[in-house]
Amino acid sequence: MRIVVISVPAVRTAPPDYVVALAKGMEAMGHQVDILDAWTGDGFRLPGYEYIVVASESVSFFSGKIPDSLPTLLAAGSGIGGKKSAAFIKKGGLFPGRALSNLMRAMEKEGMLINWSEILLNPAHAEALGKRIGA
Length: 135
Prior knowledge:
This protein is α/β, with parallel strands linked by helices. It has a single domain (2-130), classed as Flavodoxin domain (Rossmann fold, 3-Layer(aba) Sandwich), CATH 3.40.50.360. It is 31% helix and 25% strand. It contains 4 helices and 5 strands; from the N terminus they run βαββαβαβα. It has a 5-stranded parallel sheet, with helices on both faces. Helix 1 (17-28) links the parallel strand 1 (2-8) and strand 2 (32-37). The longest helix has 14 residues, at 96-109.
């Protein structure tokens, strides 16, 4: 299966270790996985994937807000309505549940069908979850 993992870190950086571990777990199951950075990537490529995974983190320790780069990226990807997807948030801050809810709301606004959501504890946990996608 062709899967894209959208990396949405709080600040512009290379994909964090939990995103790389998530993709590694999916690749171990035989999937073709690409990592797309929400800060620099274009949403026009999203309709070409069978499954969309969004891995994000809270903007700050005291809020459950997600980075503004994700809604912009998803809005550019016309044709993603009805795509199966997963929402993952890195555990951190006081409100990871609220951050996950905000992430899912942004994805559902574009018509994505979220069939899995989880709070990522660490890279090892992310890799283990990646092995369960599509299994």
